[in-house]
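sry for the spam today, last one i promise. struct tokens for design, 227 residues
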């Protein structure tokens, strides 16, 4: 149950938010992204991959502005779990490299697939870019809440809209471009992770799917240099 908004008394019992499930985290913020109980709410959300850095989400009444112990984070749209941006990068590269080409990427916490059932690509935006800017933190929370409320795959929504207009030029294009099998390709550009499947279709079942590894390396290094 979300906390009541009138719990602003400094004598109220302290609330420590530690879960990395943002479906629960956003319950501690109002519709404008402000912490509801600012005088009693601590935010200490640890990345569940590295278990050593926190997400840069803070209550200035309790904590100093994010520093070396915090990192940018991503929120998975289907389940709501959040992880450090670089940790998610490393996890994706390790778990879905050459040794597990048949695997589909899933949440490290609950194993919910990152993709919809049709394997459409997913973009995971990095939040917490303006460390210490509470107004930007408020905006991040509003954006995350909106994403979680509307977690339907964007391409699936586009397909449904196209299906309602059968004469439209794009209605047949999307349906014909669906990969039937393939491998994970992840690219990192401008602090956005794009996870997608490629290959399949006419590919022989005995052939290993191809991975665009050079592209992956290039974008990963570029993202690191830009930080």
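last one done:
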């Amino acid at each position: 149950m979300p906390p009541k908004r009138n719990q602003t008394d400094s004598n109220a019992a302290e609330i420590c938010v530690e879960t990395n499930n943002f479906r629960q985290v956003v319950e501690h913020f109002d519709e404008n992204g402000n912490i509801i109980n600012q005088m009693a709410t601590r935010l200490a959300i640890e990345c569940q991959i590295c278990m050593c850095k926190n997400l840069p989400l803070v209550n200035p009444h309790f904590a100093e502005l994010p520093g070396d112990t915090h990192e940018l984070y991503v929120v998975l749209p289907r389940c709501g779990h959040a992880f450090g941006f670089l940790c998610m990068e490393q996890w994706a590269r390790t778990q879905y490299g050459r040794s597990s080409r048949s695997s589909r990427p899933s949440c490290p916490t609950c194993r919910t697939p990152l993709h919809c059932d049709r394997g459409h690509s997913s973009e995971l935006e990095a939040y917490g870019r303006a460390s210490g800017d509470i107004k930007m933190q408020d905006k991040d929370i509003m954006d995350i809440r909106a994403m979680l409320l509307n977690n339907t795959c964007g391409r699936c929504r586009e397909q449904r809209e196209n299906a309602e207009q059968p004469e439209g030029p794009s209605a047949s294009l999307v349906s014909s471009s669906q990969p039937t099998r393939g491998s994970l390709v992840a690219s990192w550009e401008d602090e956005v992770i794009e996870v997608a499947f490629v290959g399949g279709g006419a590919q022989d079942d005995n052939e290993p799917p191809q991975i665009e590894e050079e592209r992956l390396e290039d974008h990963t290094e570029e993202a690191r240099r830009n930080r």
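The chain has six helices and seven strands. ok im logging off now
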